[in-house]
């Protein structure tokens, strides 16, 4: 029989297939830390930088947001403390709310793009942010480009997103 401890061991190993195997054996996601705080599996995955495992945990119901993402045990804070910018980016793309002033290791542009991806993919921020509060960005899909400077198009899209309209 598999235990919640096996889930933590699988996460620490960084092997996604082991994490999936533990879930298949019937272990539940929310294992508490010694202090009674839920979200320990997600926190460990974020701190260690296992992006695929973070995405798997979210797919199985792990929360990307705490009531206060500035708390040291929030997934976002754990990723920042571990210096895991790829996990920070993934969390933002999955709808994590970025506390004002938090240094993530990402540029302003990277944060803006990640937040736009979260909106585009329909992830709802737990902060209650509505679609009206998120900048409207028109996505244009072009089958084929000829003689077009895509850097100019990208710059215009980023400028519009940063100016919130």
Automatic annotation (TrEMBL):
InterPro entries: Ankyrin_rpt, Ankyrin_rpt-contain_sf. The keyword GTP-binding does not apply. SUPFAM superfamilies: Ankyrin repeat. ANK repeats lie at residues 37-69, 71-98. GO terms for biological process: protein K6-linked ubiquitination. Pfam families: Ank_2. GO terms for molecular function: ubiquitin-protein transferase activity. Keywords: ANK repeat, Repeat. This is Uncharacterized protein. The lineage of its organism: Bacteria, Pseudomonadati, Pseudomonadota, Betaproteobacteria, Rhodocyclales.
